[in-house]
Specification:
About 45% of the residues lie in helices and about 20% in strands. The chain is α/β, with parallel strands linked by helices. It has two domains: about 200 residues, Periplasmic binding protein-like II (D-Maltodextrin-Binding Protein, domain 2, 3-Layer(aba) Sandwich), CATH 3.40.190.10; about 100 residues, Periplasmic binding protein-like II (D-Maltodextrin-Binding Protein, domain 2). The strands form four sheets. A five-stranded mixed beta sheet has the order 9-8-10-7-11. A three-stranded antiparallel beta sheet has the order 5-12-6. The chain has a two-stranded parallel ribbon with strand order 1-2. A hairpin with a 2-residue loop joins β3 and β4. α2 packs across α12 and α2 packs across α13. The longest helix has 23 residues. This is ABC transporter substrate-binding protein. Keywords: Plasmid. InterPro entries: SsuA/THI5 (IPR015168).
Length: about 325
Amino acid sequence: MSIESQQAALDDLHDEPGELPVMRARFEHNGSPRYMLYTIKRFGLDREHDFHLDVQLVSDALEGGMETVEARLQDGEADLIDIDYISTARERSDGAEIVAIHPYGRTVGGLVAPEDTDIDGLEDLPDRRIGVVRRLDKNWILTRAACREFHDFDPDDEATPVEAGSKVRLTEMIHGDEVDAVLQFWPIVPEITETGPYREVLPVSELVQRLSGTSNRLPISTFLTSEQFLESSPETVRRYNAAYRDAVDRLVTDDEIWEEIGAALMTYDDPEIVRAVRDGWRDMVVREWDKETIEGMEHLFTSLLDVAGAEALGVKEIPEGTFRLEP
């Protein structure tokens, strides 16, 4: 579904901010946070918590090596985005004044291949062309780390990663038989597997748990704001966090809102796809975090660093102040 049609559905739910403090949310048009953003606007959860959430969807293309949402935040055109915490650490190490203010979820993807493929696991990746959004994408880094840890090879050397540049292009690549498999983001996996002769070979969330060494559900992506916005509007950040938790509570219990979301925001409104995305979202989302959660995220980072190295991650450590439990 186009950015324009999805934005129109969100615009129908927007009201005037009046005297309320405004938080500018800029999120990818094919990313799963839009389901939560729609729910906040649909039920007025931002107004209920005394702030105005201004939601605009943007492309997932790259601008100067960064995803569009990152560029918006760093250019001062957004107050709220989501990216994975490895990218957050990388950008913060490079001087970006960004900070993680709340967990989102296990936003990784899945290895998808044609149904008749003989790719059944990581051990089958050598000599294959694997589509990725970009080589620094978390799905590829996690796959590399797992292959090196559990199978003694690096697919960056023994397979051929093919950068698509966007999630949309990645889907086009597997449909066009340009690659043998793709590492696609989880909300798009059902759209591929339910509408064509494709199957999910392996969910990357399994690799997260194996590499982290814990059964705790760890968020890979977090919500970010700028240091400037956090300093000037900490109460607005806290109000957003409360609205997010309320939206999560509704989305994990209310099946009917997912039917509405399917019609308004998803490319396919097939009930089976909508239910698959709904169930995947519920399994993915993280409502809260605490010190133990942060320690688990740091442990996973260390595991990835030990296996894949700083060059693959693009960063050698998580900078101090990256995570803020209490905005």
